[in-house]
Design brief:
mainly alpha; about 0% strand; about 100 residues
């Protein structure tokens, strides 16, 4: 939120005033307003996106407890540290399968 206030383009002005709480309560989905204004055919023609397409090799969010010095070492190695940790675990996964 603080980032938006620092961005001059995001600050309210006379052409784009900040919304009040009452305006927020009265707000409706854009497709509903478009259907009322231009007709249901216009609303149906608009593309509906459900976000970014799912990747076939989706990552799973998992909590993992690491020693502070291990985490610090990877973070200090720069961007991509999470990917490098993932690769180390993947490399070890092959050894673990051999031992089992």
């Amino acid at each position: 939120m603080a980032k938006c206030q620092q961005d001059p383009a995001a600050r309210p002005d006379e052409d784009n005033p900040a919304w009040t709480a009452a305006q927020m309560r009265r707000a409706r989905p854009a497709l509903q307003v478009i259907a009322e204004t231009f007709g249901t055919d216009a609303a149906v023609m608009l593309p509906r996106r459900s976000g970014r397409p799912a990747k076939p090799d989706r990552k799973i969010n998992q909590t993992l407890r690491l020693d502070a010095d291990v985490l610090d070492a990877y973070r200090q190695s720069g961007p991509g540290w999470q990917t490098r940790i993932n690769q180390v675990l993947r490399d070890h996964m092959g050894e673990a399968k051999k031992q089992a």
